[in-house]
Structure formats: C-alpha cells, structure tokens
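Hi Prof. W.,

I finally got the Membrane protein prediction working! I wasn't sure whether to trim anything, so I left the full sequence exactly as given:
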Amino acid sequence: MFGVLGFAGTLALVTGLIHLYLWKRLVRDTTRPGRWRRIGGVTVLVLALLTPATLVGTRQGFYWLAWPGYLWLAVMFYLLVLLAVLEIPMLATRLVLRRSRAAAPAAVRPEPTPAATPPPVPALPPTPGTPPTPASPPVPTPPPVPTAPPEADHEPGRRLLLARGVAIFAGLTATGIVGYGVRTALGPPQIDRVRIPLAKLPRSMDGLRIATVSDIHIGPLTGRAHTERIVSIINRLDADLVAVVGDLVDGTVGELGPAAAPLRDLRSRYGSFFVTGNHEYYSGAEEWVVELDRIGLRVLQNRREEILARGGALDLAGVNDPAGEDLGNAAGPDFDAALGGRDPSRPVVLLAHQPINVYEAAKRGVDLQLSGHTHGGQIVPFSLLVGLQQPVVSGHATIDGTQLYVTNGAGFWGPPVRVGAPPQVTLVELRSP
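And this is what came out:
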C-alpha cells in the first residue's frame, strides 16, 4: 500500500514540476497577462492531470485514455528535452541584448544655446505729453527634455519575440519527432540478421537459426493484426527455432487471448519457446503460461530442453523474469534449476528477458544469452537512462565470457513511439568454429 502511494506521490511531483516548467516557457513567457495566458494555463493543467490518469487508468481498463495520454507523454518528453537544450542559447541571447542596451549612449536632447543678448539701447527721454511704452516681458526658455534609449523601449518586445520563436521551434520539432516515431512504431519490424560463433557447437549444427523476438506488447494500442504481422514475418524466416523472450502482453488472458491466438501459427523445425518478462507478471502470468502452452508455445520456466538437430545436440534453457519474485509470487529466476546438472561439453543457449541476467549466466558457463526488455531504448535520448540499468541496450556483446544478444523488440510500451530504435525481429545464426 505504501509502495503504491509512494509511486503515486513521486509521479505527481515529477509530472507537476515538468508541466510547471512547460507552462513557464510556453505560456507565461510567450503571452501577456490576459485571456490567452489563462487559456494556456488551463490547458497545461489539464495535460498535467492527463499524464498520471493515463498511467493509472489504462491499468484499470480505461483504454480510451491510451492514445491521447501516451501521445502527450511523448510530446511532453521531447518538449522538455528541446527546451532544456535551448536554455543555454536563450540565456546567451538575453545577455547580448542586455549588454547592447547598457552600451548604448543615453540620448538626451541638448540644451538650447542662449542667443547673444544685444547691448541695451539707452532710452530716449520721453516726449512731453506722451505716455511711456511698457517693456515686453522676457520669453522663458523651455528646459531640456531627456529621451530614453531606443533599446530600452524595445527590450520587452524583443524578449517576447525570442520566447515565442523558441516555443514555436520546440513545439514543431517535438511534434515532428513524435509523428515520425509513431510511424516507425506502428510500422513492420525490421529483420536483423546476426551470426554468433559458439565454440562448443558441433559442426553438424553449423548454421542453426533461431528467430528471436521480444516485447511484442499486445495491449490496448495494438491488436490481433499486430500479432498476425509478427507471426508472418517470423514464418518467412524459415527458422529452426523460435524464441519469444518475454513481455508478450499487457493485459489478461480474458482481455487479450484472441489477440494472442495467431501465435499458434508460428512455424519452426524444432519448436517455439517462451520465457516470461516483467509485464507477464502484471497481467496474470500463471494464466498466460497455461494459455501459451495451449496454443503451442513451450514455456521454459526455470528449466531447459534438449534440442536434437542435424545429428548434434544443444541445450535451450529459460529463466523467469525477476519481477515474478519481486511481486511476491515466488516465481523469480532460478539459474540452478535451469542450468544445473547439464553436460558441460554441450553448448547452452539461455533465454532470459532482461540482459542483466547475463552476470548470473556467465557464472554458470552459458555460451549465449538471448534477451529483450530494453526496446533498444525506444525513444532517444531515453536510451541513455536504459544504459544505466542494463549492460547492453541493443545488439551483440560479450560479458564475462558469455555472449549476449539483445533485440529491440517488435512492439512498444507506453507511447506508441520509436525514435532511434526501430521494432525488430532477429534471426540469430549459430556458427561452429
């Protein structure tokens, strides 16, 4: 209970601070007090409430929040990044304007030079009987009128123009990036082909191919057609094995069973296999294990199977995701159960949803681990944060003597956006020495 409240409080605080910053840069700095500023403030407030409402509401079945909420989440992210990057040039521009104003001379209208006063003319004696002529009063000289520097008159207008220019640029750029990302995320996964040598692989098994896919994320923004397209792509690869490396669904069997049904049509020579990801444990993992087994996927729950192919043998093992144990159902990864007691002369390929499991795999002499989970970062530059949590974000690497391949995943989570990390199905070809 306290964990949920803590998460909700942190989410509300972070969301509020981000939207306060966006209001300052996009509304307050670009408008004068009045109706438009009030309209902008109300709009930002509504969007601030939409973000946590979407993250919480979609888990409660309010799927209509998904499209507007997740799209705004992506736009908000890129607005934040762009405006933060533009802070430095904006500050530099303001300093230049301020210095130019300070350097401008104070234009004060000069005092008029007094005209030379002619010498007094001696008065003639008055003619008898003529009244004296009155003297004309002196004309007062107007005081000098100082004028303000022209730069001071235009300073507020320049700041307003600068703020509006930055807001327009950030808004158009963020929207454009998100539009591109939506097209990429909803498009067909690309095929990545990678050859990985295994020192223990028998020569007779050279070229064994494993179609690897992860993070399909069947959910409120995708449906049966999404699954059918991925199955069709995998089947065209004509693979020997199919490995579905977790995060298949974002919902219960009752909600998404029909959308997952096309997985029964997966074709391979030696079988299709599945390991749980963290999202399975948010969606009823036990029911999904039964359902996937029913439609033909063999679920490797902390166990392994012997693959006999082309006159050789290979161990294919799988471990549960750590989320199983974290959520209190005592079904986390058990590497000893999956890998203990095997023939060490035989190569072993481990299916583990999270790349970070490679450290435990390496302690047990695993030759190759296939993983997903990272989505390749999904949204650049978010990939930088993913790299702080996982040893590899995307692609092939060797960790402590164990080879690791991380696929980008074929779906998406949260915003239907992929930037810099296209959806992917990987064909792993094992090569002997």
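The chain has two domains: 2-103+154-183, 190-431. Does that look reasonable to you?

Thanks,
D.
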